[in-house]
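LOG
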Amino acid sequence: MDQIERLCSAVIDRVSLAVVGVRYELELVLAGILAGGHVLLEDMPGLGKTLAARSFAQALGIGFQRLQFTPDLLPADVTGSYVFNQRDFVFEFIPGPIFTNLLLADEINRTPPRTQSALLEAMQERQVTVEGKTSRLDAPFHVLATANPIEYEGTYQLPEAQLDRFLLRVSFGYPDHDDETEILSRRISRRHEEQTLDPVMDAKGLLAMQAAIETIEVEHDVLDYIVTIVAATRSHSQVLVGASPRGALAIMLCARARAGMRGRDFVIPDDVKAVAPVALGHRMTLRSESYLHGATGEGVIQELLATVPVPPTMTSPRFDPIA
């Protein structure tokens, strides 16, 4: 696990050269990738969402495609389509941009739900079906989608089924004064707009790290802690529809990834607390009156984390209170 910790730290250091002041959020995104999932970056325009996705692809050394979602985008523009070859008199499949290692679905909420749904099969089953024929996607395959808040004109709310396919939903927020000054200074120093990062690893190395994450242990009391948190969302007074068992699975997967990123081969409650808000916040439907009072899914989870009893993992001989 020490090697995973070193590599993850190197990847975050490399991405931080381009994306300033959000190291904690970048660690969450990397945890989602190590857990084998997809991440939704939802925030205001101009806060580095697209830059972060491109930077992760460069630092991880994996294939990258960007797909700009627009109101007139068709499902075939995502998955690819069959085109008649007049020379050989056969139909040939022309792969779409989804056939890559990391797909940047830029401004995914600016296209209608019909096109958004074209991603569902790929995100869940790592395959694409076009005209009855199924093609497998090469591993690793991850979607990093960006979205602007739904109250902005010209956007479509993501279907709940698609939101549920994202392992995490992460927001960067506005940088503080010093970080914003650093952004300007770095732009002056490099003397051009585009920034290219050297890779820290390659696709084979990423797959090896993901395989190692699968060996991280989660003891029963931690599993019970995760399930208790998820179950509490279903009876909370501000929640209309609570998180599904897929939410508990998302917490467990991301908590294991976070443990590996810190050089541990076992999960502690702090790992669960760190990932629970971004793993569950988008999987709940709040009551209408809750939205009027400014409540958010992440806020509800933070409230539950303060009330759900933490398991007594101090009894574990492997527990590291410093981690």
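LOG (cont.) second protein
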Amino acid sequence: MAALPSPRVVLFDLDDTLFDHATAARAALLGVHRAHTCFAAGAFEAFEREHTACLEDLHRRVIASEMTVDEARIERFRRLFEAAGVRAGEELLHDTAMRYRRAYLDARSPIAGAHDLLTALKPRVAIGIVSNNVLEEQQAKLRHCRFESLIDVLVVSEEAGVSKPDPAIFRIALDRLAAGPDEAVMVGDSWAADVEGARAAGIRAVWFNRFGHPQPLAEVRALQAFVPLATAIDVILGGPSATTPNQSGAIECRA
């Protein structure tokens, strides 16, 4: 594969790209599943799929400022209890949501190799994060993962007033970094939000496809992991030895 122009700016998604949302959410959900017989009577995998569907639907409403994160979490579990045939009262909903939240916070961690990757890139490029979420939530994740000192710009849809895949949110990040689209690369796990959004803004995209989904476009470089570090840097910065891994895809999960 031919070498690409080396970028001056690298933009990253946060959830399930640098921060391991999926693992934290699964650990938290397992606790809820085991704690209630109405949930434990069924397979965890089916419960997890239902939870993911609820989370994604309600997350869109949070991004649109139609409800708060706390309200969405309560409503999420209201729907799950209803699906299990239980009419849950407010106290049960609150307690379940708090059980999930505490477990989620306890399970937070960076994606393997993410901290080393940012540390290696920091002297070479400006680093930005472009994320669909609320600002306070994403700032807390950066602090927990010790990413703060490695990030030059954080652009979150709540404060930007626009969300991925709208090209405008990528332009906001580039403006803050005084860079043009041809000087940047975007790394993210969501094909629709990160890859298509970045390409619509004229930014080269790298798909972080750690779950091995089929890849819609072979021309887009992809990574399934940030280790080994040298390979990840080569793919992101456009080195000639980088190869596009197995055809893959992803959905954007939220906290």
